[in-house]
Amino acid sequence: MNRKNDENNIDASVKTNQIDNNGIVHLSNGIKLELSQCKLIPPGSNDYVNVVMMFSLENMYDPIIKCPNCDSTIPWDRPILLMDNMQFVYPCSDCKWVWERQSFNMRKFRIENR
After folding, report:
1. What pLDDT is recorded for position 2?
2. Minimum mean pLDDT among 10-19, 25-34, 75-84, 87-96: which range?
3. Residue ranges making up the domain that contains 57
4. Total structural domains in the chain?
5. Following DSSP, what letter does each residue of 19-77 receive, concatenated?
6. Alpha-carbon distance 48 to 22, whole Å?
7. What is the C-alpha separation between 73 and 31, in angstroms, rounded?
8. Using alpha carbons only, what angle is made at residue 9 by residues 7 and 10, rounded to the nearest 5 degrees?
9. What is the distance between the alpha carbons of residues 39 and 22, in angstroms, rounded to a whole number?
10. Contacts of 85 (CB under 8 A, 6+ apart)
11. Tens digit of each residue's pLDDT (9 = 90 or more) over 61-76
């Protein structure tokens, strides 16, 4: 793991199996971070994007049930992130970080916008 620490930041390459279903990142040195407070770099970019919201499949009315990359079943309580670039990010526990651009289909917002 490549890490650069300062007072407010930890620069780390996080593997998806280091993230639990509560959205906590467990770094190898024992440090724990909340995934919702992290900034991520999308594929093909050098710019960080912020997490807007963290949720799980139970909050989606049209849930993604299979990982788009490896086709493994996504656990009901696995965290999914909506980023400020309007992409969804899923830390698949079987393969890698999966970045998907798709319509915003959260149950809460569908009900409020009727």
Report:
1. 38
2. 10-19
3. 4-112
4. 1
5. B-TTSEEE-TTS-EEEGGG-EE--TT--S-EEEEEEE-GGGBSS---B-TTT-PBPPTT
6. 22
7. 29
8. 115
9. 17
10. 42, 49
11. 777 788 888 999 988 8
